[in-house]
Amino acid sequence: MKQRRNFSLLPCLPADYILMLKLLADSVFSFDVEWIPDPKSAEILHQTPRLDEPGPDASDSFEALWAAARKQGDPEDFQPYLKTILCRIVSLAGILREKIPGGGAELKLISLPTDPSDSSKCEEKSLLITFLKSVGRKKPQLVGYNSAQADVPIIVQRAIVNGLPGFGFSDRPDKPWLGVDYFDARNSDYNVDLADALGQYRDRPSLHQAASLSGIPGKIDVSGDSVAQMWAENKLDEIVAYNEFDAFTTHLLWARVAHFSGLLSGEQYEQEQSLVRSLLEEEIAGGRTHLRKFVDEWDRLLGLTGQAKST
């Protein structure tokens, strides 16, 4: 279950903490992670029965973790925020943007697990190894929404729980400006949290709000609160599809913020949207037919917001 922190409860930071983009790296990865309450955490901490796969008993494991996190006065069916270390990553998707000779760029959809029907490829450890090795090797600029507070921490925590090395992802320069640093979102240009570019605390929009008002598809059909139940019902393919929607949403919002920041000219911004649309059509033709919903919603919102359709 993808969860969001209640930022109104956090201490206030200076107004200049709102961050704007300063760098457009040769390699950019706009990503999103989906997770659920980890049945193994429930087994270890609350002595629930062992559970190795989806099924109706998963609800009991989830409930044990939620019950322990509820505060006095919370409704019995309330699903409170769980510390990310108590959760299991079940899907990770992103749009990899790489600069090509001549100044243009090419896009690629990265989606894990690559085959939701293959249980060996769905193991959290396998997902983490693939992600950490790839990012550690390419060193892209990571772009997410609330990623500095949630997505990056859960990747680090769950890698440690699984006993994994950093595979280059954990490398740190002596000073933030001397190289890639994924552990200092305030000072490094390689851990970009778009939420920090759009506001803090009470004024921070959700990804759905920021995207939809910008003519970009937000949440389609499901929300992060549905992921745990979907996993229990063995609907991992639907979780992956939902995660891919969020990856495209994040990348389109990144392009819009990069345009505002002066990193993409008006012409380059239009070209980026065209690249996204071409990638969507290629993936649909290749069998990811669920992405047609994203294209249709994109066209609807472009018309609703009075913006020209990207071609």
Number of domains: 1
Order of helices and strands: EHHEEHHEHEHHHHHH
Instruction: List the total number of helices.
Output: 11
Main β sheet profile: 5 strands, mixed
Which stretches are poorly predicted, pLDDT < 50 over at least 5 residues?
4-17
Determine the mean pLDDT. Answer: 91
Give the strand order, joined by hyphens, for the main sheet.
3-2-1-4-5
The span between the termini is 35 Å
CATH homologous superfamily descriptor: Ribonuclease H-like superfamily/Ribonuclease H
CATH level 1 class label: Alpha Beta
User: CATH architecture, please?
Assistant: 2-Layer Sandwich
Gyration radius, in Å:
19 Å
Shape: globular
What do you see in this structure?
- Helix 5 links the parallel strand 4 and strand 5.
- The protein has a 5-stranded mixed β-sheet with strand order 3-2-1-4-5, sandwiched between helices.
- Helix 10 runs antiparallel to helix 11.
- The chain has 11 helices and 5 strands.
- The protein has 311 residues and is α/β, with parallel strands linked by helices.
